[in-house]
């Protein structure tokens, strides 16, 4: 059996020797208080940075939610306006705001056509 990343190789009999993939401390190395303090400080710094990233991410999401809620309110307002226009039209009245909107759309269309004609020349 030949494996690409074999961790153990058979040396002799039942003895096995580690070939690669070593993890943990090296043999013979003693951890000093300085190393432990440095490791602890790195861990604390990493935790501070993680909390800061988390805070920024939540602020971003809160802003996103607030923007979406504003958009929903605006759309509800617009829906209510169109509902009122529909009721007025059902009663035989043409809302003034609807006439203004139609006139504005006609003006924009004329401008688009004029711009298109100018660009063709």
TrEMBL record:
One of its GO terms (cellular component) is nucleus. It is found in: Nucleus. The keyword Repressor does not apply. Residues 21-31 have a biased composition (Basic residues). Belongs to the bZIP family. ATF subfamily. PANTHER family: CAMP-RESPONSIVE ELEMENT-BINDING PROTEIN-LIKE 2. This is cAMP-responsive element-binding protein-like 2. It comes from Caerostris extrusa (Bark spider).
């Amino acid at each position: 059996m030949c494996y690409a990343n074999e961790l153990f190789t058979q040396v002799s009999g039942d003895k096995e020797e580690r070939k690669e993939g070593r993890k943990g401390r090296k043999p013979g190395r003693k951890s000093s208080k300085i190393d432990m303090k440095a490791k602890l400080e790195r861990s604390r710094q990493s935790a501070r940075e993680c909390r800061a990233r988390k805070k920024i991410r939540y602020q971003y999401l809160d802003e996103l939610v607030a923007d979406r809620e504003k958009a929903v309110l605006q759309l509800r307002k617009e829906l209510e306006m169109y509902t009122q226009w529909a009721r007025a039209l059902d009663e035989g009245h043409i809302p003034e705001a609807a006439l203004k909107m139609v006139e504005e759309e006609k003006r924009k269309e004329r401008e688009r056509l004029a711009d298109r004609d100018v660009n063709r020349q």
